[in-house]
Each structure stands twice: as structure tokens, then as C-alpha cells.
């Protein structure tokens, strides 16, 4: 339901951003369920290669007020690519998201947080907005309790929390995101306790996104 969810700037002191990389995956659905239960909205940095067959998950995310961003097509090390390849990784993914949801993703996050001047120059003038993070647990390797403890210890207004709802092909990380889902449940409970709320990155001032 998009009604009543028109974009607004989060200038309040109590807002932070939960973000998820590497999806969509079967765990994205569980994450959407939890976010809905808690009235939290998040940002999903999507891998183009993971979209086929999961278009309805992306449509649901949009319908429930979440933001979709680009995380490349195939999760490469972007500094190793030519400028044309960097743009192709992003715009192929942008097109796939637009085909699936009718929305144009404007935010992007580099795989491994690897963006150098070469990568940024390749995307200069494209209107894409890079999003960093301030709290990055290794939820893909850790137990739910480890991830939740790490995040909860660092929670503060304006924080950008980086979690993972899927995985790149051949990543070698935990093949499930069950631990991330369980960690999210603990984190959402803590947010409520502290009167903090999660909003999509589009509601933050641009200067707050370069962590
Ligand atoms: Zn990633």
C-alpha cells in the first residue's frame, strides 16, 4: 500500500536505516514479514543475478514502503572492471528492478564496499547515489546472537546498519540467512525499546549516506 507513504525527509533524531544486501532470496520474505510486524521500513540493495523468479518479492518490498537499491549484477570487485563494465553491472540491475516493479532504483552500494575513484568516475553523471554503512556485522558468518549483540551495542540515530538477505553465487558464506532473520528479530525488539525507527535511505539527507 503506497497510500500515506509519500517520501518524507527523516530529520527526527530517532531514525536509522536498516539495509540488506545480496538478495532477493527466500529469506527476504521472512525479513519482510518481520519488518511488517514491527512497522519498520528498510532498504534492499539487490543483486541483478538474483532477481529472476523473485520479482514478486521485490514488488512486495515496494508495496510495503521499502526502498530498492543496486548492488551490481554479479557481485564483482568493481575496481577490477572497465568503466563500461561497471556501468553495465549497475544499469542491467536497474533495468531488471524496473521491469519487475516499475520503480527506478537510484541508490547503489558497491560489493565489498569497494568503490575507488575509477569506479566513481565510471558512474559520475548517472544520478546514482552511493550508500555506505556505519554498522557492518558479519551476519553471513555469525550466529544471530553475535550479530544482534554487535548491532545493538552500536545503535544510534542516523546509523546505517548493513545486513544480508541473500548471497552472491559462489560466495562461500553460510548458504542460509536464518541467522540474519533471527538477529533481525532481536534488533527490531531493541529498536522499539529505545524508540528508534528504521526508514529507507531515501528519507535521509544525502550527506548522511556516505558513511
Ligand atoms: Zn554484497
Q: Can you tell me about this structure?
A:
By secondary structure, this protein is α/β, with parallel strands linked by helices. The protein has one domain: Glycoside hydrolase/deacetylase (TIM Barrel, Alpha-Beta Barrel). It is built from 6 helices and 7 strands. The protein has helices spanning 26-37, 55-63, 83-101, 117-123, 144-154, 178-193; strands at residues 15-23, 43-46, 67-70, 107-108, 129-130, 160-164, 197-198. The strands form 2 sheets. Strands 1, 2, 3, 6 and 7 form a 5-stranded parallel beta sheet that branches. It has a two-stranded parallel ribbon with strand order 4-5. Helix 1 (26-37) runs parallel beside helix 6 and helix 3 (83-101) crosses helix 4 (117-123). The longest helix has 19 residues, at 83-101. The chain is globular. The structure holds zinc ion.
Amino acid at each position: 500500500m503506497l497510500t500515506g507513504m509519500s517520501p518524507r525527509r527523516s530529520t527526527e533524531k530517532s531514525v536509522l536505516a536498516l539495509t540488506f544486501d545480496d538478495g532477493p532470496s527466500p529469506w527476504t520474505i521472512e525479513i519482510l514479514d518481520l519488518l511488517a510486524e514491527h512497522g519498520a521500513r528498510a532498504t534492499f540493495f539487490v543483486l541483478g543475478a538474483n532477481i529472476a523468479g523473485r520479482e514478486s518479492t521485490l514488488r512486495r518490498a515496494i508495496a510495503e514502503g521499502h526502498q530498492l537499491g543496486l548492488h551490481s549484477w554479479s557481485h564483482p570487485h568493481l575496481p577490477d572492471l572497465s568503466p563500461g563494465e561497471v556501468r553495465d553491472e549497475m544499469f542491467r540491475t536497474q533495468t531488471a528492478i524496473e521491469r519487475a516493479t516499475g520503480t527506478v532504483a537510484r541508490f547503489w552500494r558497491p560489493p565489498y564496499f569497494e568503490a575507488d575513484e575509477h569506479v566513481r568516475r565510471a558512474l559520475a553523471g548517472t544520478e546514482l547515489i552511493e550508500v555506505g554503512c556505519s554498522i557492518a556485522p558479519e551476519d553471513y558468518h555469525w550466529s544471530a546472537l553475535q550479530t544482534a549483540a554487535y548491532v545493538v551495542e552500536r545503535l544510534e540515530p542516523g546509523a546505517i546498519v548493513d545486513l544480508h538477505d541473500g548471497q552472491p553465487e559462489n560466495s562461500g558464506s553460510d548458504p542460509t540467512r536464518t541467522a540474519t532473520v533471527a538477529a533481525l528479530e532481536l534488533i527490531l525488539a531493541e529498536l522499539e525499546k529505545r524508540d528508534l525507527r528504521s526508514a529507507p535511505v531515501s528519507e535521509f539527507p544525502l550527506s548522511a549516506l556516505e558513511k
